[in-house]
Amino acid sequence: MPDPFGERPLLTPAMTVGHDAVPEGERRRLRSYLEAVVTVRPAPVHTAVAFNAVYFGFDLVGDGYGGSPLSPDAFPVISLGESAPVLPVGAMVCIATGSDPLFAEIVHKEGAHPELGPLGEVPAWVSGAPAGAEGPGRPTDATMPRRRERLVPDLHAFGPVLSLSSAQLLRLRTRRRWIDEDGHLVVDVRHPSPVAAQRDDLTVYAEYLLTTARDQLLNPYVPVSLAELVGGTHDGDLRAGLLGLLDTVRGVLHSSPALRTWGDHAMTRDRLAAGLRDSGPIGGADLKSLVAAVEHAATPAKRRFGLTSEVTEYTAVGPRLRAFPGAADALRGVGYAAAVFRANLALADAVRGDSDHGLFENGSRITLDDAFEGGGIWRSHHPGATEPAGDPLVPAGRGWASSLVMGPSRGAQEEPEPEEDVEPVDVPLVDDSDLGRGELLRDDAQVVVWRAPLRLAHLRGGWFPLPPEAVRELRRSLGRDAEIRLELDHTGRDSADTTGQAVTAELASDRVRLAGIAWPQDFFPGLMLDLRLTRGGAVIRLSTTELDEPVRFGDRVTGHCFDPRVVTREDVPGSDRGGDTAVGLGPRALILRTVRRCGLLTLDGHALQDRAALPSAAYGRRPVRVQVAALTAAVAELFAERVLEPAVGSRDAWGQPHFPPRVGQPTIPLIAYRPARQRVIRPWGGTDASGGKLRAVHLVPGHLRRLRPGCSPSDVQRAAFREYCRRLGKADGWELPPGYTFVTEHTRGH
């Protein structure tokens, strides 16, 4: 069985790039260890917990983290019922008690909203609501929103030495002063911002390790330090490497044939099957009953003449499980996390196997609406055939969305159904006065140099504007309209476009420009162009600037400098060299186009759209009810997939939206397009810059290794470890722990 402290480290530099970049042999070794971890842990293993196991060295034979380099005295202290900072799954904590401290690892967390009913019933607006929401359609205006959360700690993760006895834990649960009756922590969590509250678990955990638990992360006693894996301690490199490691661990868990996964949690198939065979509380019979209850929750009672009403119900898994007779004991401690995992997976399997994209034979549509609140909230709607089909297992947040977009009041005149072939009109471009404005770089006796981004109109029309300084020089040397030579220097392009071409300098009209340009195929709106005109000549040299490494901006990957605002505004769905129209776009593409075209634009390419104005902006007129419903569902899906994010702004007396919200103005919900600018790292085993295959040489970072009994490290290795500590910022005379030696950095392979 692979060992984190073994001769061959389980974590390698390739894993800092991500799962797809890791050679299969390295994946196999990591998978073998993680499968063993999932087997011995009593709770479903979250990706963050699995990372902890391999990074900090979890012992599989009973000591857990008891022999790891972790320092429990440095863990953040948390108390039942109090306010606390964000504590993600995977966080190591110290639970305050009246006597001995209680050390634990958070293995599961979920929302504990006060309006969750005892039978799992949930008000619609709670499902998918942002942190701090105060009611239907009322997002919080607090800069640091709070949310009540249930944290499930593993109180035995640090082995028997640092664990309390069963009698001591029973006494603590009975008093309900330090932990509740189930051995859990219910706390009010303070999120640093509304945007931060929407981040996914792994991103939050990475930020936690890089800030609150930074000393823990860079501890030189860990099997292989992150700083060694990425080759430095720069924050950007550490963050990218840590996210890559988390992606690798998640990919390995999801690819294991011995495991089943739900979200970021994993459980062995054997344990899952044993739970389904169990005839006791929360066993197979109760889970079948839960599935049937959710399936029929929205089935309406028949009225006279066979008429039925439209019904939508929301069910929270955690509270619903507590309603089964005799379930209390099975839901204590980490057993609660296991029960929630099995229940959600049972519902998901029923949706996958017994329905058509969530539409069951009884006419109800069952979808996951919120993966966090109450252990997971499932939405039952009847009749389901009237709703657009999407992925039923992607949390859509339709409950909260329905509280933001309200239909017509009762008694109002019904809107007409849409006519056939009704198409959305083109979305007009917002007039941003300085969008794409060029910059004069040099104007002297020898040359005129300027820079400007390429626009969609330039690509479609084959032209490019000229600045006044260049126009004056061309008129002086050429007179009126004339043919000149345009030389393109586009280093790194994949196409075979010529580097020189004849174009026309149109100088006589008011719209002075270069016309007749054949743009390379890989040019896109927003690409930054540098142009140079030598005085007295008839040649303009146009060049692009390569980045140090490719980056992803939204859905665009490029290796050249670009203007993020132009990319956001013009590199949108429905826009290319052949045209620029919204006709024929589906609801998702239409929403993305509208937010990016019509939203408030920031300097770094973020766009924020007034949510109330979205339907009219998307269609160019007041849409009919069916179109509003389609847009609402699409917005919820885009929120769930993190393609778009909810935000809060304000509206002034003239009806104009503002972001961030201004003091004294009423707040309004916004839809935010925030393209993450990420570097794109070449995959391990891919090609180098020259197109050749990378050599099969693996860099093995410095790491600790267990010694055989009776062996001791040499003085050379002791000195190497002290130097290793110095590079990590731990230059305080650290010595090797007993029973270990230090393996210096080296390469392995050909």
Report on the structure:
The protein is α+β, with helices and mostly antiparallel strands. Among the domains are: 72-113 and 142-200, no CATH class; 278-395, no CATH class; 439-562, no CATH class; 582-675; 697-749, no CATH class. The chain is 27% helix and 22% strand. It contains 19 helices and 34 strands. Strands 13-14-19-20-16-17-18-15 form an 8-stranded mixed β-sheet. It has a 6-stranded mixed β-sheet with strand order 2-4-5-6-7-3, with no helix packed on it. β23 (575-576) and β24 form a beta hairpin. α2 packs across α7 (235-255) and α9 crosses α11. The longest helix has 21 residues, at 235-255. Residues 303-307, 406-431, 493-498 and 681-697 have low confidence and may be disordered.
How would you describe this structure in keywords?
six-stranded mixed beta sheet; 750 residues; 22% strand; 34 strands; globular; eight-stranded mixed beta sheet; alpha+beta
Number of strands: 34
Question: What share of the residues lie within helices?
Answer: 25-40%
Distance between the termini: 26 Å
Radius of gyration (Å):
30 Å
**Largest beta sheet: strand ordering:** 13-14-19-20-16-17-18-15
Please tell me what the overall shape is: globular
Average pLDDT reading: 85
Characterize the main sheet: 8 strands, mixed
Total count of helical runs of at least 4 residues:
19
